[in-house]
Amino acid sequence: MEKAMYQSYGIGYEEYNRRLDNRLKVEEEREKDYQKSLSLVDEYQKQMHV
Fold first, then answer.
1. Measured between alpha carbons, how far is residue 43 from residues 6, 11, 20, 40, 50 in Å?
2. Looking at the whole model, is its pTM more than 0.70?
């Protein structure tokens, strides 16, 4: 898990837990990633129903 977090967000789990500002930054990025994935799924579904 440590490696995946570092690769995705440039921060290790220990540093993520240690500082609130780091957690907030990572969570903002996770939210952006989530919204982007929803958008991609929506676009894909629209293409499949054309």
1. 29, 31, 35, 5, 11
2. yes
